[in-house]
User: Fold this.
Amino acid sequence: MKKSLVMLNVLFVLMITLPACAPAANPEPTNSPVVATVGIPPTAAPTEEMSQTPIMAADDLGAEIILAEPAQKIISISPSLTEILFSVGAGDRLIGRDSNSTYPQEAVSAVDLGGMWEGIPVEDILALEPDLILAGEIYAEEAIQELRDLGLVVYWQKNPADFEGLYGNIRDIAILTGTEDTAAELINSLTDRVSELDEKLASVEVIPVVFYELDASDPANPYTPGGGTFISFIISRAKGLNLGDRLTGEWVQVSSEELLAQNPDIILLADALYGITPEIVAERAGWSEIKAVADGEIYPFDPFILSVPGPRLVDGFERVAEIMHPEVFNK
Amino acid sequence: MDLSGLQKLCTQKCLINNMKTRPFLMISLLLGFSLLLSIALGAVTIPPGNALKILLSSLPWFEFSGDWPAYFETILLDLRLPHTILVALTGMALAGSGASFQGLFRNPLADPYLIGVASGAGLGAIIVMSIPQVGRYLIPFGAFLGGLGTIAVVYRLAKVGRMVPLTTLILAGVAIGSFASALTSFLMLISDEMILQAMNFLLGGSTVTGWEPLVIALPYFSAGLTLLVLGGHSLNVLQFGEEQAQQLGLHVERVKLFIIISASLTTAAAVSFSGVIGFVGLVVPHIIRLLWGSDYKKLIPLSVLGGGVILLLSDILARTIMAPGYLPVGIVTSLIGAPFFLWILRRAKKEVFW
Amino acid sequence: MKKNGNPPVLQIRSLSANYGDVKALKGISLDVKQGEIVGLIGPNGAGKSTLIKVLSGVLKASSGEVLINQKEVNSYSPSQRARTLAVVPQARQLGGAFTVEQAVLLGRTAYLGFLGKPAKEDLRKAAWAMEQTEVDSLADRKLAEISGGEQQRVLLARALAQDAPVLLLDEPTNHLDLRYQVHLLKLVKRLVKQERLSVLMAMHDLNQVSGTADRVVLLANGELKAVGSPEEVLTPFNILQAYQAEIETFTHPKTNKHIIFPVE
Assistant:
């Protein structure tokens, strides 16, 4: 009696585990073309592998993401990844997003999963049955592991440190969605624009000090990005000096006193969305003595083009360069 | 110079003697020192010699010139000076109100926020913050109206006929205060952009800088502090209980209303311009009591001066300990205030000072 | 019978007062002459403390009048009333951090004005009061640090400093050791004669009343049951009616005082 019970158990266990051991490469007998996207399809014929071979990409946590075929039902919980997804032409596959992913406009039609303040809404995500989840640097490894433990496929992406990093990120998403051609074109165009800007800026000699104001909840001690951030990288690339580079830390609070001492030439108001205008800034106690304020060099700045590490970073690069060196752009 | 004479002048015993017999002198000296220290220290190091020259030059009788960058002057005169004055006034307001409430309620645990001013002011401030497009300068007004409005409601609720029983006042204050706090938390939850701003306020950080808001705030502080000091004698009489106070000739209900209004006005002003700062109003009066007794005619003005000292020193710590960052001063007062309070409790076992 | 033919200093006419719906005082009428000590007795809840509260303005009368030196005091402001009527309460834990001198000076509140700055006269009166009650040697001691008997004398000094013609004492010997009780009552008797005060003193010890008061008033259930000399009021019948206790009386052979003792 006992023996048969054991045998039954072993059989049961084998039944469950064997399918998992089977190679995941068993293809579905669908003949859908690998590169099939609605939206901005490339005109070139697909040159990628057909659905026989699995798609693989390593994410920045070191995990191997393996998909049988390009992801069709995608959830993105970071605005940067949403933007990249749309830029490679796979935006229509987005079925769920975080509430900050509002660019481009089409992203809004995907299911809003909330602001992620109290954690990732795991149940809502499971209910949508995604085959791929895209998560950005802000999510801790534990949170990602929690999703993976539930059998979800999660791709975690670090913020890029430079343009090459950005291109690499775009390529990874392209692989996962089978949109390598669109991506290649996009990267080419981005690279061209960057080279063009670099050329124009080559002749610049004067490097202005730039104060990028992220947040002024405490108007006497606003927040600014420090060295090592992408914003700092862009400002340097655009031949400027980020004031935050002189301070320690990635997101630093700087006192009005320090600002007076550093005396930036240009102020970029990345908190313009919250109603901060150049007039308000000029009225802050003591700020009228700052060179940027005295010269009227205060510019509202769309924070998303530099704080969301997607293709619009190049727009950010352009905008910053234009503000800092208008003479090179014939404005 | 006769050094031995100087030595005798400044011996420790002499100092302690002076401390005991000349409280106002000692505290005023301490206040003066704290004011100067607060102006001298900040994120940017300014050599004291230059600082002194710049400060004196701002007075009409002096004219110093020196080799310093222009922004030294801006920092000292446009940033640090008004900030120092505001901090001093805030500390004075809180300690004065705290001492008055401790006298009024005859309760050593009373502090300026006992009957709901801080919660109401917080709610007022956060409401203003959550309305988009409203100018930042309106935050103090919202806080002020919120604070005073709350007191009015609490007083009305606690009134029984023509009298306002103190216990009912406290209970009403706690109830309304909790309600206001809950509303505040709710507003903060649903509008997460202004959480940083709100936290800044609630932990005790000023929402305004410069001379302008100080000029607006000054009349409220002056009026409030004056009224508080005037109420000292009445508070003395009240220490024997309302019944005996009445029998001694005090118009008890009128006096209670007077004290509630003065303390609420002063506290509302403090909270509106400097956020919610804890412990100063609770601890400073006790320190003064331990040193110089419980005569409210002296206790109130000494607490006022002492509050200025304590908050100035706490603010200096808050500004410099995490430079170039800025710690909300409310955190510093809480961190320091708690051990201080325990020390006071230990002393209380040995002497009668309450 | 009395030496002066002047009208009584304190005149209470049909005084009534309520605590909510409960009638605490029902039409009390009573006189106290100058230089006289009237002892107020009655069981707990009879209305002794209530009467003192109404007279001192803490509780509002529902009807009746109170005249001091022929003037209605119910319409007085608290400071006016405090100049005509002073109360010596029981020593409790209040105001312990004040020194004796500070506490006695507070007796001058009615004369001090809002800021409480004492003039020479105020300081003089306070010093005199402390002397009379023999607490001047304790002037710098905190109230909480002196004995119960000393505290009670300080409160008496405070009331004296008020310089009022009428003095009300609310069971002043409660909680005091015997020798302090004796001392206090002796003090009161002397001061009343010396300063020509009119005193109404609530007491619970019937023998002490008998030895101290010139006249005795018996209250029960808010009503005045008997008024007269100690012998006239402290009878077995009256005491049985009011206190539900059986007593016997006799006259002390040496002092001629009317003594009461309970029957076993």
Summary: The CA atoms of residues 115 and 173 of chain B lie 4 Å apart. The radius of gyration of chain B is 21 Å. Chain B touches chain C through 27 residues (CB under 8 Å).
